[in-house]
Amino acid sequence: MKDKNRFNNISLIIIVATIVGLFIANRTLDDYKLRIINLCGIYITLGLSMNLINGFTGLFSLGHAGFMAIGAYTVAILTMPVPMKEMNFFMKPMVPFLANLEWSFLPALLMAGIMAGIFGFLIGAPVLRLTDDYLAIATLGFAEIIRVVFTNTQSITNGALGLKGIPNNTNVWWSWGIGLLTIGFMVFLMDGSYGKAFKAIREDEIAARSMGINLFKHKVMSFTFGSFLAGIGGGLLAALLGTIDPNMFRITLTFNILLIVVLGGLGSIKGSVISAIIVTVMMEALRFLDESINLGFVQLKGVPGMRMVVFSIILMVVVIFRKEGLLKES
Amino acid sequence: MGNLNFLQHLANGISLGSLYALIAIGYTMVYGILRLINFAHGDIFMLGAYITYYGILFTSIPWWLVFIFASIFTGFIGLLLEKIAYRPLRESPRITILISAIGASFFLQNFGIVVFGGRPKAFPVPNILNKVIRLGGVSVGIVTFVIPTVTIILLLGLTYFITKTKTGMAMRALSKDYETASLMGIDINRIISITFFIGSFLAAVGGVMWGTKYPQLMPLMGVMPGLKCFIAAVIGGIGNITGAVIGGFILGLGEILLIAFLPNLTGYRDAFAFVLLIIILLVKPTGLMGEKITEKV
Amino acid sequence: MLKIDDMTMKFGGVIACNKFNANIEKGQVVGLIGPNGAGKTTVFNVVTGVYKPTEGQVIFNPKEGEEYLLTGLSPDEIAKLGVCRTFQNIRLFKELSVLDNVFIGNHLRIKSNVVSSILRLPSYRVEEKEMYEKSLYLLEKVGLKDSMDEKAYSLPYGMQRRLEIARALATEPKLLLLDEPAAGMNPQETRELMDFIQEIKEEFDLTIFLIEHHMEVVMGICEEILVLDHGVLIAQGNPEEIQEDQRVIEAYLGVE
Questions:
Q1: Could A54 and B113 be called an inter-chain contact, meaning their C-beta atoms sit closer than 8 Å?
Q2: Smallest Cβ distance to C105: which of A199, A211, A221?
Q3: Complex ipTM > 0.90
Q4: Pick from A37, B128, B225, C189: CA 20 to 30 A from residue A186's CA?
Q5: Which ranges does the record mark as transmembrane (chain B) (predicted)?
C-alpha cells in the first residue's frame, strides 16, 4: 500500500509538470514546434492503443491505419462547416444528410472513437478466431479494404481528392489531455482483473482458456478498446493536420505506430509513452536527411526516403539485438 | 460483352495469374518451413524488376541474359535477407520475427526510394516482347503468352527439384516436421537458404515479367502484389506449392474478370483479394489444399 | 461426479482412446495410469474440452440433481462449471508474477464488468480485495507466499507445479484434474505432495482425478485406479487389485 501511495505521488508530480510544461510551451513556442508537441500527444494515444492489442493481449493486428482512417473521416465530416464541404465536394455533391451536419469537436471526437470501436467489434468478431499470422494479414486486409472503400465513396468521403479545411480544433490541451487520459485508462485497465486476463491470454492461450477465461470475449474486448482509441487518435490527427486523404492511411502508418510500440517494448506502458515522444521528435529531427539544407558555405543535398531507411534499420536492429525494446529495463 | 473480348480478358487474367502464382510460391515455401510471413517478399519482387532495368540500361549484355542474371542475383539478395533479418531470430517468439520481416520490407522500400528515386521509371521492354499478334480478331501482346509459358516451365522445374532431388526432398521433410527432420541430420541452414534463394528467384522472374507487361517501375510496386500473393498462398492453403499456384490463378483471373464484367467496381479492384481472403479464412481457414494442424497440449 | 461414457477419440486414422468408460464418485481420489502414449492426457483433454471426442460423452454432476453434459462445451465453460486442471508440461503465465498467476485463476468468477474495473468503482474494489486475499491464502497454502512477486518462470520446477495447483484451486473447482503432479520431484517432495493433495482435498471438498507415473503416489492416495493401454481401459479397481492384475503387469512389462 505504501508503494501505491508513492506511485500516486510520482504520477501526480508528472501530470502537474506536464501541464505546466504544456502551458509554457503553448505560450512560447512557434506553430511548427507546437505541431510536433501535438503529434507527440496523439502518438502516445496511438502507441498505447496498439500496445493494448499487440503487446498486452498478444494479438498480432496490423489494422491500425484503418481504424485511424475511420476516426479521422468521422471528425472531418462531422466538424467541417457546411460551405467548406460544398467547396470540397465539387466532383460529386455530398450526401445531404452528412452535408448539413456540423458538430462541435468533443462529440465529433467521441463519435470518431465509437465508430472505430464499432468497426473494431464487427471486424474483430470474425477474425479474432484466427491465430497470429492469419490475424495479421486479415486485419491488414481490412485496413486496406477501408482505404479502398474511402477512395471510392465519392459522395461521402470525397474519394481520392481527400478533405481540406478541417477545422483545426486540436491543440496541445486536446492532444495531451487525451494522451494523459489514455495513459490513465491503460494503467487502470492493465492493473485490474480484466487486464490481467488479457496478459494471461498473451502468455498462454490454452492455459488461460482452461482457467475459465473466455478467449474470444476478452480478445474482442481488447480489440474494440484498441480500435476505439485508434479512432480517437485518428480524429485528433485530422483536426491537427486540417487535410486528409485515403492515401495517408496506408500500411506505412500502421508500421510507424508499430515502430513506437516495438521500440518502447511490447507490453510496456511507460515504454510506449517515452517511445512515442522520441520517435515523433526524431522523425522531425531527421527530416534533414530527406531535405537539402543550406549551411551557408556548403549545400547538403538531402535524399528523399533516407529518413525512413534510417528508421527501418533502427527497427530491425532493435528486434534483432534487443528484443525487449530499447526502453524497457531488463 | 462479346466472346472475343472475353477471350482477351481471359488471356490477361491468365498472365496476371501466372505472375501471382510465381510470387505466391516463395511465400508458401518459406511459410511451410519457417512458419513466417516473409513480408519483404514483395519488395524482393520489386528489386528483381529494378535490377533488370539497370542491367539493360548500363550493360551491353543481351536482354534475355540480363533477365536471367538479374533473377539469380535477386535470389542471392533473398538469401542474404534471411541471413540478416530472420536467422538471428529463429528461436524468438513469432511476433518478433514478423516485426523483423516488416522492418526488412520497410527498409527495402525506402532503400528503393533512396537509390532508384521515387519517380516511376519506364521498363525497357525488348522489342520482340512488345509485338502484338492478332488471333482471329483478338489482339494480344506477345508477353501475354510468354508469361504463362515461362511460368509453366519454371513450375515443372520446381516440381522436379522438389520431388526428385535430395535437397528438394529434405525441403519437404523440413516443412512436414521441422523437429524430426532437424534430428535426422538435415542441414537446416542450408535448406532454408536454398528455399529463400528459390523463392526470391521466382519472385524476381515475376518482377521482370511484370515489368514487360506493366512497364512502369516504382519502389513501392511490390507492396500490393506482395500482399495479394500472400493472400493467394493462403487461399490455396499455405505451405502447399500447388495450392499457391491455384490461389495465384484464382486471384489473377478473378481480378481481371471482375473488372471486365463489373466495370463499376474497378475502383474496388485492390479490395477484391482481401475480401476473398477474409471469406476463405472464415469458411476454410486452412485454404483449399491445406491440411489441418492440431495444437499439442 | 464425473461419468465418461464410451468415449472414443481419433486423430486422423490414429485412435488415441477407444470406448473409454469411467465413473468417479464425489470425494474420491482416482488415478489414471498406463504406459507412455496410452492416451491418458487425451482423456483429460476430452474432459476439459480441449478436444471434442469422436464418439461418446462426458457428464459432470457436481451435486445431487445437477447434471451437465461437458461434451461440446468449450474449456472455459467447463472451468466455470467447476472442473479445473494442471498440465503435464506446466503451462504457467511465465512472464507474470506468481501472485498474478493465482489472481488470474479468480477471474472467471468476477461479477464486476470491465468498465467498473477501469473506473475502480467501489463494487469492483471490494471484489478485487477478496480476490487478492484469496490468492494470498492459496499462495500461503502452497508455500509460495514469500516469492509472490517473482516471475513464474523463475521458480524451481517443483514450485512451478505447486503454483499450477494453486492457480487451479483459485478457480474454485469441484473436480480437480492433476496431470503428473509428481513428475520431476524427488522422494521427499513427492511425499510432501501426497500429504498436500490429501490436505486440499479435505479443505476444499474436492474430487481428484490424477495421472501419475510415480507408483507410490498412485498406490498411496488413490482409492480407485484406472489402467489405460493403447487407448483401451484394461483394468480398474483398488490399489491391491491393480497390483495383482495380470494384464496390468503385462502392459507395463511389455509381455505379449
A1: no
A2: A211
A3: yes
A4: A37
A5: 6-29, 62-81, 93-118, 138-162, 191-211, 271-290
